[in-house]
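User: Fold this, then the next.

Assistant: Folding the first:
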Amino acid sequence: SMYEFAGKGSLQDILHGNSRNQKLPLDLRLDIAIGTAQGLTYMHSYGNQAIRHGDVKPDNILLDDKFVPKISDFGLWKLLREEYYFGKIVAGDMAYVDPVFLKTGQLTEKSDVYSFGAILLELITRKPSVYDEYCSLILEFRKVCEKEKSGRAMMDKEIATEEEDIYCLEEIGKLAIECLKEDIEDRPDMVAAVERLVMLKKDRMLKS
């Protein structure tokens, strides 16, 4: 079963849950980001059968013993295919749900891109996506970036030490902000997101 596969639990567990004392070096976080992005790209590339997940969040990203991610729980997609009315099921943690989807009820691939952007911010800050109703990670990060032209102040201190690490984190932060754009036309697709993350990884491997 999926849960036997998840030797390390979910991304939620290792970022914020019982496994929180788990050391998560930047390269491992980058690999998790790439694996998750590749999983979404694969789902989105199914031609006519393209799947839009609609409920991408750290709880639904399961990690095996080597931290390889698998995206699970296609609940919302199944419900939408059966044409249930979205309003009845508001599934998903609101922190990850595309506001455009909430307004229009149209679930697109760019809705998953939005959720992925929220997850990238969690990977680089190790803060949960919602603190309380007055404050969200996305809004906080945007504010800091606008004010300081950098997301550095919010980055997880455990990994934001070396200059080249900070460069990589800034680039992941920029990608996240693009994935979280209000206008879906301004968001990259998952293919472009994968390319950018893979380039960052290559860049790091060349330097090490």
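Now the next one, as you asked:
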Amino acid sequence: MKKLLLAAAIVCSHAALAQKLTATERKIVASVQQNMPQSEKLLEQVVNINSGTLNVKGVREVGTVFQKEFDAIGFKTEWVSMPETMQRAGHLVAQRKGKKGKKLFLIGHLDTVFELDMPFTKFTRLNDSTATGQGVNDMKGGNVVILAALQALHANGLMKDANITAYFTGDEERGGKGPESRADFIARAKQAEVALAFETATNLHTVATARRGSSTWLLKTYGTAAHSSGVFKPAVGDGAIYEAARILNSFRETLSQEQYLTFNPGLMVGGSEVSYDEAKARGEVVGKTNIIAPGATVTGDLRFLTETQKEAAREKMRAIVVQSLNKTRAEITFTDGLPGMAPTPGNQKLAALADQVSRDLGYGAVAAGDPGSRGGGDISYVAQYVDCLDGLGVSGKGAHAAGETINLKEFPLLVQRAALMIYRLTL
């Protein structure tokens, strides 16, 4: 009896809160709910196509599925190809031009981290609230949220004069080398006023007003090759491996407590003969215990919230590198990757919109999450040009790992929230 009373109270509460929605908005919500079986079927279809970044054919196949869906609701679609030497599939763009409301730029990506040589996991319902499958939340689920929200608006004739560009990149997980990879993406975003990205939602109540950027660094240290019995002696010195160890530990001691800043040495090789293949992220080394290593190589990443934080960290790292041990020397080089998406008043305003829509739907408050809990994303490329919000996709667990899941209970709620956010922005 208590359970029935509680359920009735929840229904009444949601009904009361839903009164904050306009008649049109209630129709949008109804359309989302009515179409959810088809939305889940679409998600299953695209999850069951391997689209690891390097599987160009698979990425294009997933893109073709979405392209047909966008065509059906009146979007003009095209495929932005990349140079053949880049070995990437390119990007799907769907666009409607109009003069009403904000110019919106909706961001998804077609690729996953699961390449063809990895074990394949199809879409599988585990129970009534959970399903698993490759890319089910990162981010094929997010792509479906975008499409399902737009389908609900189309079903109610609400996109006739909207200005919306949906941009699904084909290499978010392993970006192609060179400026061409994101040139068109950035150019089109600059024409918009608001960018909404549908990467995985932490949960129903959290969005991202900021994301950390990422870059890489390469450290090389050099010492004098000699018999190990002479290590530390003035004429021989400490060797390349000790020099690398000194630098890495100094990085940790000097910089590890700074908020939102992380740096991780992901690969290290050192010995008598060292080779490092950057393209394959592979190192080979030859060495003996009784030979002081003349060479060592370490590569890692650097993550940061703002460009100012990135540059300040690099200066501190360079200062540590030049303080060499006896008879050693070192050099470090940095390579830019994703810029940071800094929190801005405009981004916070979008978070406030998500919060209001969620409350109006009866789903509770929404707040900005911790930027340190997220990696980089495509939205960071355009954050300096437009107001941005991310984390609007589906919720789930285990992204980038076997057993990745989607929360099917929150799936329709997140589509409803996205649909009403887009609707209100296009008024």
